[in-house]
Amino acid sequence: MTKKTDQDVMRENNKKLVLKTLFNAGQTSRSSIAGAIHLQKSTVSSIIRELHEEGLIEELGIGEASNAGGRRPNLIQFNYRYGYVLAFDMGARHLRYSVNYLNGEVIKKDSLRLVGNSVKDVFQMMREVISGLQAFDTMKGLLGIAVSTHAPVHENEIRYSPFLELDSFALLPALQEIVDVPIRFENEANLTAISIRDFWYYAGEEPLQNLLALNIHNGIGVGTIINEQLYYGVQGLAGEIGRSVIYKDKQVYRLEELYSEKAIMERIAKHEKKAELTVDEFAALIESKDAFVLEVVDEWITAIAQMAYNLVQYSAPEAVFLSSRSLSQFPDLLQRIFEEYKALDPLGETRIEFTQHDIYDSSLLGGVALISRQVLGLESQDLVFKK
């Protein structure tokens, strides 16, 4: 292998810097890019030519002159329709997917009911989705696939799954046999954290550098962003807070055995003498002010506030973002969580918010950002994606 010279490395870094600036800028010009990143115009023009040859530049024509006069600039922008990416979310009961341009704009998305709980069955559904894809008015078509899993992931391999039977079936090689594009697996809480980092709009505020995404669904997980980078921990096991132990009623439980959304609804379903409870039925019981349900919800709110408080004491993020299907329907419950949290930490600077995206969109958008960054070679750059 030929060793890269310092000049090669510098050229590569400059190309990434120009590409990042193009990605974030919208309409711009070569001189504007050179000024923004403090590179010589000749260097920027050379890199722009290279990116243009690769199909990553879209020419927009002549723009308006500046107030100071001078030549009118040739406007360009990043070619978001260079290709598209596909993101899957493998849930307990549904396979959700989203097809997006490289900048994050949605082309198509859908949710498919799972038949069985075997990962091999999930693969068959994925294959049908992939086989039905078109070019979607792009140059290169499909560029990469991200797969959100409700399980820990290490080195692109699912460690274990509490909801799907892995069956000794190797999902990654099976996908690689039908498509020749990069494929990334990642934990759904981690992808939620990525989506907040890359898609969240802060109304003029500086992007958050340190944040937590606390996902309370069938399990409980946390995605952690530290200094704008995702924290994985040893073998990808960071954030498995649901497996934390808690002592209650003289027994030791896992936290998610008591306070996951699944555990709460199973507890209420048992009281209602039902095999299971849907989110809509749960919401209806809350609205009816059922005494038992309200008692369970009160306990749940306190537990979530304490979880958030404990997480904040450990990592001191700028914000904690909560995600839950059922809680998202009741803003007053979210307010109560916030109030109980503030009572525990009245002087704390960390804010508690609820994710703006649909909870499933969050993991899908995180997958879109993850694989788009890999395709473009901009994994560690500050990028602004669009909904």
Report on this model:
Residues 17-58 form the HTH marR-type domain. InterPro entries: ATPase_NBD (IPR043129), HTH_MarR-typ (IPR000835), ROK (IPR000600), WH-like_DNA-bd_sf (IPR036388), WH_DNA-bd_sf (IPR036390). Transcriptional repressor of xylose-utilizing enzymes. This is Transcriptional regulator. The structure is a single chain. With 387 residues, the protein is α/β, with parallel strands linked by helices. The protein is 41% helix and 22% strand. It is built from 12 helices and 17 strands. The strands form 5 sheets. Strands 6-5-4-7-10 form a 5-stranded mixed β-sheet, sandwiched between helices. Strands 13-12-11-16-17 form a 5-stranded mixed β-sheet, sandwiched between helices. Strands 1-3-2 form a 3-stranded antiparallel β-sheet. Helix 2 crosses helix 3 (41-54) and helix 4 packs parallel to helix 5. It is globular, with a radius of gyration of 23 Å. It starts with 5 loop residues before the first helix and ends in an 11-residue tail after the last helix. The mean pLDDT is 90.
